[in-house]
Amino acid sequence: MGMVDPIADMLTRIRNAIMARHESLDVPYSHMKFAISKILKEEGYIRNYKIFVDEARKKFIKVYVSYDENNESVITGLKRLSKPGRRMYVKVDDIAKLKHRLSVVVLSTSKGLMTDRNAKKNKTGGEPLLIVW
Question: Strands of 46-53's sheet, edge to edge?
Fold first, then answer.
């Protein structure tokens, strides 16, 4: 049986790697997870990401976790917002209600995956996938 929520699996892998103080982690490849990795790197939450192919010709993304000078993770929290069992959609005016502190909300819009700041700039709402702080 396949995985029900691959994005939640990716977030859990990142959380587990941070708790175990790993430098990197492997995530099975998908276009959505690749786009999320790209946004996390642009926002400074991860150091880098690379695509690899293993012996069985399966693609995976190697995500390099970012730590500060005190060996603390840059990511203090990750939360999945819209889930397969309970989808949620927001208008551009309601995006600010999802945020707290210095967080970034990743949205899936009709113009692709983007952060809450870019969604406000483009005046487009969508499905909030996750929040990172």
Answer: 24-28, 59-65, 46-53
Instruction: Point out which residues pair with 90 in neighbouring strands.
Output: 126
Q: What does the alpha-carbon distance between residue 121 and residue 111 come to, in Å, rounded to a whole number?
A: 12
pLDDT, tens digit (0-9, with 9 covering 90-100), for 39-74: 999 999 999 999 999 999 999 999 999 999 999 999
| Residue 133: closest CA among 115, 118, 121 | 115
Per-residue pLDDT reduced to its tens digit, 69-126: 999 999 999 999 999 999 999 999 999 898 887 899 999 999 999 999 999 999 999 9
Residue 124 three-state SS: coil
Longest distance between any two alpha carbons in the chain, whole Å: 47
